[in-house]
């Protein structure tokens, strides 16, 4: 038998997976502090999670672990229980989206038809159409920069096809730098931070005992170690907390001329800290010079205008950044749908937005108070009521052992037609350098009170049944 033939047979008989970078066989699973618990080894959902994130890759050239975020993975598991066939019978408290109907008192009705102009048949600029960029700049000047000498112009705004596309564009133009990100935070940051090799992602764990608060001294520590970019959601997903002034201003002072501050403000309208007066949270308020301060703000119609399906978002920042961000859209995403950009312009009239935010905040505060009371009545401990967003970061430690971690609780909820998101997905691990089963987020789930009240009631009833079992 030829040596090539014998080598081929030996290769065919191989039963283990090879690390393609080092040529060393991969272990089935690495544990950093011990073997899996009985709950994990006997749990179908734990096995599915491990299979989706480690192990054999059967298709050459494919890394399927990059194919889904936490919410998508949860939806795929729910589909196995019939979610796609009868979604109306489910309480989807996992999707990070608000209710989109027109029945919130005080909110303006959304367009049901579009007047599609001849110009919108053409390719649009990858940085967005100028009238919408002007409207966004005007909104921020009116709401956050009145009386300040430095004002945003249309050249400080890039329109992007959704928040994820905006994050990817920002990642594409970052220089060689340490990028500091916080744990827990938005699941899609994981992909953004791992796809690009022009920077190194550095995790910054936050303390549960401290309410996952970002203190200015923590930012100072990161800058002292050489971190050149700070990325965070604010208001914060998934904890429902917010960093507001004067601390936000102090953080921006620390970053000025030292680090780029990337502020994901998609939940800026869901602010309950000022008695639902319509005020929104934004780093734009503390910028001194719009072209010198390295502050990038990302927001859009998705959350506070309750139009996730439109995929219209924006990035605001110094002109030099915005030129690069606009340009890289030509090879990343091609730009935002032009007819929807045109339809968005009248929605951004500042007085209309102010009234909209008042109605939005009152409505979602009522939903927050409902679910907090229901869950407390069931026996959950909620130490900090969210002061922003539409999320609860729900601690499961007091529950019976078999449902006291996020994955098993998620599995039990599926059996009652309820979807939540296991907290482990918010423990961002872009380089896969840690074993996530050692995660401090393992005994949490994210509960969304974004859906309509009847869905929230159905979801709370389902969770009640889980506990009664």
Automatic annotation (TrEMBL):
Gene3D superfamilies: Type I PLP-dependent aspartate aminotransferase-like (Major domain). Residues 117-449 form the Aminotransferase class I/classII large domain. The keyword Transferase applies. Residues 22-46 are annotated as: Disordered. GO terms for biological process: amino acid metabolic process. CDD domains: AAT_like. Keywords: Aminotransferase, Pyridoxal phosphate, Transferase. GO terms for molecular function: pyridoxal phosphate binding; transaminase activity. InterPro entries: Aminotransferase_I/II_large (IPR004839), AspAT/PAT-like (IPR050596), PyrdxlP-dep_Trfase (IPR015424), PyrdxlP-dep_Trfase_major (IPR015421). It holds the Pfam family Aminotran_1_2. Its cofactor is pyridoxal 5'-phosphate. PANTHER family: ASPARTATE AMINOTRANSFERASE. Belongs to the class-I pyridoxal-phosphate-dependent aminotransferase family. This is Pyridoxal phosphate-dependent transferase. It comes from Bombardia bombarda.
